[in-house]
Amino acid sequence: MVQPPFCSTPNMVHPPPNSSPSMMSQRPVWVDELFTNMRHIETRLDKLDQIGILVSSMNMKVIQVEQETKSLSERLAAVEISTQYVSDQYEDQKTKCNELKSSVINIEKTINTQHSDVSSVEKKMTAQKKEIEQSFEKMKNLNEKMREDLLDTQIKSNIENLVFYNIPEKDDEDCLEESLIFCEKNLKMPNMRESIQILKANRMGNKGERIRPILVKFGSFKQREEVRKNGKNLKDTNFGISEQLPGEIQKRRKTLLPELKKLRDEGHKAYFVRDKIHVGGKEYKK
Questions:
Q1: Phi and psi of 212, rounded to 5°?
Q2: Please, are residues 1 and 51 in contact by the beta-carbon 8 Å criterion?
Q3: CA 123 to CA 283: how far, in whole Å?
Q4: Where is the stretch described as Disordered (predicted)?
């Protein structure tokens, strides 16, 4: 606490106001010394007062510093707690990252193993696919061969047959007799009955608006060919004559018919053998 400045000593004896100079001159020396000492004391007391004020100010500043130090200590403690939390979280995340890394490594190993298994399976599947394709190709070729063999069988079974077209139908007609008459009259074969044997003849399909062709079976392939070769006499007529062929062969011939007509128009002796065009005794190829 700041002390109030000292005043002059209460017991100090001041000279009376009406004292004369003679009286002052008669004051003892020790009195002057006493006054001097008192003045020195007052000066020192003033300095002490200033020191007290300074000390009080310093005390205030020390208190302020203590408060700030305490605040800094509290903030430092909070920072330490936060730092410890961050450190704990870092360690926790580091542990989790290591666990995740281990899991990724295990997954990669599993994927590599599965990839190897998949590659092995793919190789097996490729080999099996190739075998299946080869087997399928063999089956396809075999099926094609069987199909062609069947067509050949059908052709051979009908090798003695011819089909006559556009012969008018009659009620209660005798197809065999009608066929003989057709050969004699239209195919220009007057000795037909003596040289050619017809085993049987009948209309093909159900009766309708269109004239049904007559299927004729001859006694031999040679007799059939003799009749077929006279088919040239039907040129410029509505009648027709052909071999009895399987439907597949007829479709193939129909596709090649424009080429056959073109060759004939060019003067080539072109004709069908089975489902191929032949020219001059050899198979024609573009």
A1: -80, 140
A2: no
A3: 46
A4: 1-24
Q: Which residues contact 82 (CB under 8 A, 6 or more apart)?
A: none
Tell me if 110 is assigned to some domain.
no
Sequence letter at residue 279? V
CA distance 114 to 258: 61
DSSP letter for 11, please: T
What predicted TM-score, i.e. pTM, was given to this entire model?
A: 0.51
Which uninterrupted H or E stretch holds 186? none
Give the model confidence (pLDDT) of 247-270 as tens digits: 899 999 999 999 999 998 999 999
Q: CATH number for the domain including 200?
A: 3.30.70.1820
CA–CA–CA angle 276, 279, 281 (5° rounding):
90
Strand ranges for the chain from DSSP E: 161-165, 198-203, 214-218, 240-243, 270-273, 276-279, 282-283
* Residue 33 exposure: Cα atoms within 13 Å on the Cβ side: 3
- DSSP state at residue 237: S
Amino acid at 41: I
pLDDT greater than 50 at residue 224: yes
Q: 192, exposed or middle or buried, with CB in 10 Å at 0-12, 13-18, 19+?
A: buried
Q: Cα separation of 188 and 195, whole Å?
A: 13
Positive or negative torsion for Cα 98, 100, 103, 108: negative
Residues 222 and 269 in one domain: no
